[in-house]
Amino acid sequence: MRLLIVGTLGGQLAVASRMAMDRGASVVHADSVETALKTLRSGRGADLIMIDVALNIGDLIRRLEQELIHVPVVACGTTTNARAAVEAIRAGAKEYIPLPPDPELIAAVLAAVAEESRDLIVRDDAMARVLRLADQVAASEASILITGESGTGKEVLARHVHRKSNRADKPFIAVNCAAIPEQLLESELFGHEKGAFTGAIARRIGKFEEADGGTLLLDEISEMDLRLQAKLLRAIQERLIDRVGGARPVPVNIRILATSNRTLADEVRKGTFREDLLYRLNVVNLKIPPLRERPADVIALAEHFAEKYAKVNGLKPKAIGAEARRQLMRARWPGNVRELENCMHRAVLVAAGDEIGPDAILTPDGELMGAPERPDLDRTVARAAETAEAVTRALVGRTVADVERDLILSTLDHCFGNRTHAANILGISIRTMRNKLKEYAEEGHPVPPPGQGEAREVA
Length: 459
What we know:
Strand order of the largest sheet: 2-1-3-4-5
Shape: globular
């Protein structure tokens, strides 16, 4: 997490800076908008800008957009500066943080920008196998593709690989390909030269050069445009990049990690992802199983998040009760670790007493998480499954022509012999219907007579 703080506010932003560093962020300071822009262009990028509300925030955001620099901006000011706060939000700031800073608020803002917890908690054998493979290949220079459903912790595993690699003391730069608009992503990755486009008033170093010597994570790479994929392929193959508007290639020394919540082989078949790029990225595939397939991790992660958010919110740590544990184990967790983290954050805040009970394990809508299904619904579902299985068994061993004949005649009987209605239900033309019925009659099969209002036919 890299934080750029712009302005001073009488030293109060320095306090915010110390709080951010206490939570693992690296911090760079700039005394003006111009200095901040020079810092960003130079390759000392940022994941978040915190700026004094008294500075020209609208000018900063406008110039960031002109130079295709993608970074969220948060305004900071004294609590009495209400009008300036409103103007900052209108100018494009994501949030307004009142000063003097509150430690929990600083932590929440940093967590929201980082999006992923960096804690790697592993107890289940299925995840332990993935981690062992990650440790085994971390020291190599091979490109690694990390796959899994959304919320399983792909970026967390990528950071673990970097920490275990020979590049651990070098930069780890993450780019979310899904979060950055297509027209900005090329400049974000490769940088640009002065005059490359309207608004490019100076050279800007991209993420490839920022990561030089270290690791570049391309998060959700399946969202990348095909044209940009071709440029990325060359960068990986040749270890050379071309800045937008550049006259000569720039050498880079990086290791590429990529993540995707889609199956890239399927995207290749659809024509939305280059096959040669997939081969380059997928030297090693670390496939993270969903949380529902890692039952031993559920309670370990829940305990970790309960302790974490009790500390963040200044609350006394609370144990997770037995019934609450059973609820956690029953839940399916479609949002995986991220959903579990949010659930435990809620539980810490709403639990009464010294223990987290079942009534605190809630969905965002306030319903009990992991509640057992209604028995009557279970029976209905079971009967439907049995019926479907019986129908399927009845079809096995029969020809397509026999099944088609029975379907047409049964539908016709259901429509009381009305050929037009039956043809509409089946999605065939009335001509096809008549031809089929004539064929069945000639073969000796009983065919319902035409319904009321329809002309008598040979069939």
